[in-house]
Design brief:
Elements lengths: L14 E9 L2 E9 L2 E6 L6 H9 L6 E6 L2 E5 L4 E2 L2 H4 L1 E5 L10 H7 L7 H14 L15 H14 L4 E5 L7 H18 L2 E6 L2 H7 L2 E6 L2 E5 L13
Parallel strand pairs: 3-9, 3-10, 7-8, 8-9
Antiparallel strand pairs: 1-2, 1-4, 4-5, 5-6, 10-11
Helix pairs in contact: 3-4, 3-5, 4-5, 6-7
Length: about 240
């Protein structure tokens, strides 16, 4: 069976990012382009990777910067453009997930959908997305009954329910064991191929880089220290 995924309005556009942020002694200054596919922000904890995601989503205002999806400018400090979070239509998946504990899996997924859709259409699409992420059996169950991997899959289904223009993944698999991480990475890769939008995935796990990356940007101490806009080539072989 083929399970449909909502078609985003901006498939094919690249995300361009240029950010300068000063917070106390920490100074972040990075610039990169993320075309459709998976761009990994790789580097040690505290290097500024999650800060970059927050600024892209509109959750954090940089001191200076520009963020644009194709010709659609979300942020431009020189032109005083700062589009609010809900108008950027960014799917953001955290390690903490933030599922609504009082809602079933279907309810959590429906929450992210277009409110103009008929209720039964919403529920049908929610079931399709849960099936896409191999958790159809959780349809009527609440998050307190999920395993860690099940909760992550429901969170991914909810993120994609909004037909996102950009997907941001902030170390969502860091607490998972190796086998589960590989399985979830396979699901994300398949979804990235279907959606055709930029995915930006933050990690410090080399295994995730090998499994997911189309491109890698290396960040350390707030700076882009390496990385290429060319397709990623695995430099670590089969080791962890």
């Amino acid at each position: 069976m083929t399970h449909s995924v909502p078609e985003p309005a901006s498939a094919g556009a690249s995300l361009t990012v240029s950010l300068a942020i000063q917070r106390g002694a920490f100074h972040l200054d990075v610039a990169f382009e993320a075309p459709p596919g998976i761009t990994i922000l790789f580097g040690p904890s505290g290097s500024g990777k999650s800060t970059v995601l927050a600024a892209i989503a509109g959750l954090l205002r940089p001191d200076r910067g520009r963020v644009a999806l194709g010709t659609d400018v979300w942020l431009d400090s020189t032109q005083r453009i700062d589009r609010p979070v809900h108008l950027r239509r960014v799917a953001f998946v955290f390690q903490s997930l933030a599922l609504f504990p009082h809602m079933s899996a279907v309810g959590n997924v429906v929450y992210g959908m277009d409110r103009t859709l008929a209720r039964e259409v919403q529920r049908t699409k929610a079931r399709e997305l849960l099936a896409r992420f191999h958790v159809a059996h959780l349809e009527n169950r609440r998050p307190s009954t999920y395993s860690g991997g099940e909760a992550q899959r429901v969170a991914l289904a909810r993120a994609f329910a909004m037909a996102p223009r950009v997907v941001l993944l902030d170390e969502p698999f860091s607490a998972m064991d190796r086998d589960l991480r590989e399985s979830l990475c396979a699901d994300v890769r398949a979804s990235a191929s279907e959606l055709g939008v930029p995915f930006i995935h933050v990690t410090h796990h080399r295994q995730e880089v090998r499994l997911l990356a189309d491109r890698v940007i290396y960040i350390d101490n707030g700076r882009r220290v390496a990385g290429s806009d060319e397709p990623y080539v695995d430099m670590w072989g089969s080791g962890s």
